[in-house]
Design goal:
elongated
Amino acid sequence: TAEIQDSLLAVEARHLMLQKRLPELVDKAIQAFQGGNYLTPEDNNALMYIEEILAIDPENNYILKMKQKIIKFYMEQGDQAVARQSRNTAIRYYETVLRIEPLYMPAIDKL
């Protein structure tokens, strides 16, 4: 029907618009990542841009690797806190990892 065709055209148009935004989002993700703004500030952080990019392009290897580097950073911070016997701090870092990747087994195993 015409209604379905209109809906499909609207979805296609939105997808094309988002594809055009991709380079800008990647640039912003890189800037935030390089600045160490992994999770903050709330309106301009690497993870925010990463999630937007992956919603458009879920197979983007560069961005998936960036996300893994952020997870690795917080896992290492947690491990260092454990080594310092700062259990509560370690828990906060591992919980941060789980906010980024809820089923990340290495973090779950540490809790």
